[in-house]
Amino acid sequence: MVIAGNWKMFKGPAETRAFLEAFEPPEGVDVVICPPTASLHEAARGPLTVYAQNAHWEPEGPYTGEVAPEMLAELGVQGTLVGHSERRQLFGETDEMVARRARAALTAGLGVIACVGETLEQRESGDMGLVLKIQVEAIAYACEGHDYAIAYEPVWAIGTGRTATPQQAQDAHAFVKGIADVPVLYGGSVKPENAEELLSQPSVDGALVGGASLEPGSFHAICEAAVRVSTP
Ligand code: PGA
């Protein structure tokens, strides 16, 4: 089971170092942290698996503000998120861009967690299946032949304190797995209090944790929930 912490635009190098000093992962769970770009170098010196939050599809070029997967690999970064809903919603990333980012990262030897998820409007208008199908198919097509993971993160549950019910998560994960047979992490207001129930669902293979990954104690508690769920 994978527990990944998406730090978003929080924690510079000094705070990253302080987190790593305070956090020791429990045995029996694959822990990943995704610090902001400025803290990747510091994070990669520590003992945890480190993923970036995004990566470009070209190995180099005139792309101001972007970072190439090969450069991340050189830093000791082991993978990257792609397609986070904040990238899609706030920075205009399309399914095609997300797919290209994912494929380039995999080709450069990085791991990938590709994020998908519907907005509340899409869920309520009955378009959830269509939206997820388009997002997942674009990723699956681009990543064929590679190992990668998907994170299902309903946009209405991200940073809102509103979590999908375990059954809603299970249904969406089963749907995603019907299109791409890969591990699927759940994301959206995962907290120590709800982690165990969400992670117990048969099609939930881990979690992508935002807010609750910033504090060593709460992130540790979520990792422990994953260990309990995976121990028969
Ligand atoms: P959240 O964020 O846990 O703070 O809702 C999850 C994410 O955006 O990956």
Describe this structure as you would to a colleague.
This protein has 232 residues and is α/β, with parallel strands linked by helices. It has a single domain (2-230), classed as Aldolase class I (TIM Barrel). The protein has 10 helices and 8 strands. It has helices spanning 13-22, 40-44, 69-75, 85-90, 95-107, 120-124, 128-142, 166-179, 192-199, 216-230, and strands at 2-6, 30-34, 49-52, 79-82, 111-116, 149-152, 184-187, 206-209. An 8-stranded parallel β-barrel has the order 1-2-3-4-5-6-7-8, surrounded by 6 helices. Helix 2 links the parallel strand 2 and strand 3 (49-52). It is globular, with a radius of gyration of 16 Å. The mean pLDDT is 97. It binds 2-phosphoglycolic acid.
Q: What topology does this entry show?
A:
Blueprint: E1 2-6, H1 13-22, E2 30-34, H2 40-44, E3 49-52, H3 69-75, E4 79-82, H4 85-90, H5 95-107, E5 111-116, H6 120-124, H7 128-142, E6 149-152, H8 166-179, E7 184-187, H9 192-199, E8 206-209, H10 216-230
Helix pairs in contact: 5-7, 7-8, 9-10
The structure holds 2-phosphoglycolic acid.
